[in-house]
Amino acid sequence: MLSGVSVVSFTHFLQGPSATQILADLGADVIKVEPTGGAFERGWSGPDAYLDGESVFFLLGNRNARSLSIDMKAPESIELLRRLLADADVLIESFRPSTMDRLGLGYESLKEINPRLVYCSLSGYGSDGPYKDRPGQDVLIQSLSGLAHATGGGEAPPTPVGASVVDQHGAVLGALGILAALHGRERTGRGCLVESNLLSAALDLQIEPLAYHLNGFRGERSPSRISSMYYKAPYGVFPTADGHICVSITAPPVLAEVLDDPWFATVGDDEVLARREEINERVAGHLVGRTTKEWEDLFTERKVWFAPVNDYAAVVDDPQVRHNGSVLRFEHPTAGEVAVLGHPVRYDGERPGLRSLPPALGQHTRDILAGLDLTPDQIDALVERGVVRG
What we know:
This protein is α/β, with parallel strands linked by helices and 390 residues long. It folds into two domains: 6-205 and 323-389, 3-Layer(aba) Sandwich (Rossmann fold); 236-309, no CATH class. The protein is 36% helix and 16% strand. It is built from 16 helices and 14 strands. It has helices at 15-25, 56-59, 75-85, 99-102, 107-113, 138-144, 165-188, 198-205, 207-214, 252-258, 276-287, 292-302, 312-317, 319-324, 365-370, 376-384; strands at 6-10, 29-34, 50-51, 54-55, 65-70, 90-93, 118-123, 193-197, 236-239, 244-247, 306-308, 327-332, 336-341, 388-389. Strands 8-7-6-1-2-5-14 form a seven-stranded mixed β-sheet, with helices on both faces. The longest helix is centred in the middle third of the chain and has 24 residues, at 165-188. The chain starts with 5 loop residues before the first strand and ends with a strand. It comes from Pseudonocardia hierapolitana. GO terms for molecular function: CoA-transferase activity.
C-alpha cells in the first residue's frame, strides 16, 4: 500500500514505534533513528521480558524497519539527518515538545528544505498549553482523562484499563493523520504538520460517554457493577457457579423467558433504565446458580448476547483469534521464536506480513549513509569518531 513512501522515525516508548510500525507494515521504507546507545525500548520491557537479551517490548513494535544509529548531539549528525530528510516523505517523532526545534529538526526549519514533508509529532498532551512539559504516560493519561474514574463498580476505586490502550489508540490516530496528510499532498503538492497526543486519544476513546455528559446526562458508576455509567442492564461481567460470563443488553421479556423468571416481564419499556440496578442484581442472582458452560449453551440457543471472560491463554487459543491469524510468529537470530500481534487490518483478504525483522542497533547505518553519497572512508571515519554506530 505504501511502497515508495519514505519515513524517518524519531520515536521511542510505545505510541511512536507502534504508529511507525503501522506504516512499515503497509510497505513504507522506515528508517528508525536511534542514539548510539540504542532506543529506550531496547533496554526496557514491562515484566523484564527478554528473550536471550532481546527486549520483547522492542520486538513487538519495530518490525519492517531499518536502524540508523547516530549521535544527535554531534553537529555533523544533524547535517546528515537534514540531508536524509530533504527527500523524505514523512517524519514522525515522539520527543517532548520543542526538542526537535532545539536540534534544528523542527517543522518550520525542515519545510523550507522539503515543502512536501509530512511532519508528525506525537506527544502526551499537545505541543503547547499548560501541560506540554508534563510526562505523558498511558496510566497517567487514563487518570487525567476520566477513563479510570469511569471504570469499575460503584464501590471500587477508579480502575485503569489493564493495557496501554491510550498509547495504542494514539498510535493509530497518528498513523491516520499521516495517511490523510499524504492523501492531501497528492492534491496540493504540500506536506503539513500532523499532531496527535495521548490526552486527545484518551478522550476519543470515550466519545460516547463524554457526549452524554456534555449534553447534561449525568451518570454514576453502578453499585451492581454494570460496566457503564449510562447503559441499561444487564451489561457487564457476572459470576457463575464456576467462573464468570459477560452478558450484554438483553430486553426484560427475553430475560423472563431465558431465566425462567416472570419478574422481568413486570418491567415496562420505559422503566428499564430507571430500574437498571434491580435488573442487574436479579440477573446476577440467577447466573450464579449454574456453570459458565451451561449458560453459554443456553445463551447460544436463545441468541442472548454473551461472551466468555477469557484470560490471555484462552484468547490466544480462541478459535476466531486463530482463524483471523492475529498472532505473528517469526524466528529471530538472537531471541529465537518470537510471537507478537500482527497488523490488525486485512487488505483483499490478506494481512501485511513480515518483510524484515526488528533491526539490530545500527544494522543499516552504513547502507543509509551510502545512500546520502558518503564514501566508505567517510562512513568509517564517522564510526571511529562515535558519530554513528554501524
